[in-house]
Amino acid sequence: MNKDDWKRFVKISAGYGLTPSAALLAVYSEVLSGFGCGGRFGVIVTVFGRDNVSDDIVNVMGDFTKLALVDIKRDDVSFCAECFEYTERTSGKYLSQ
């Protein structure tokens, strides 16, 4: 995706109140659903989550990624704002950027 397409995607996503990450996950779930995953399934996403356990945590090197299971519910929902909104609600605590 070129830079202009990405900017347009981000703008459209924001128009629905979505982060780009949640919008991409919604599009990805639409593709998975079309390939036979059905109306309800889970997607494991990798998220960055360095817990603030010390004032020096910014100086610590390591793998601070976590895995999160996101519930995808496509029951009787066409590829539209409702799917995006559900994905945003269920993934919002993980995909905040």
Question: Keyphrases for this structure?
Answer:
single chain; 97 residues; 2 strands; 43% helix; 19% strand
How are the SSEs ordered, and which strands pair?
Blueprint: H1 3-15, H2 20-37, E1 40-48, E2 65-73, H3 81-91
Antiparallel strand pairs: 1-2
Describe the structure.
This protein has 97 residues and is of the alpha+beta class. It is built from 3 helices and 2 strands. The protein has a two-stranded antiparallel sheet. Helix 2 (20-37) packs across helix 3.
Amount of helix: 40-55%
Count of separate DSSP helical elements = 3
How far is the N terminus from the C terminus? 18 Å
**Mean pLDDT value:** 77
Shape: extended
Order of neighbouring strands in the sheet with most strands: 1-2
Radius of gyration: 16 Å
Largest sheet: 2 strands, antiparallel
Number of strands: 2
- Residue runs with pLDDT of under 50 for 5 or more positions: none
Q: Give the SSE string.
A: HHEEH
Q: Note the beta-strand portion.
A: 15-25%
Structural class: alpha+beta
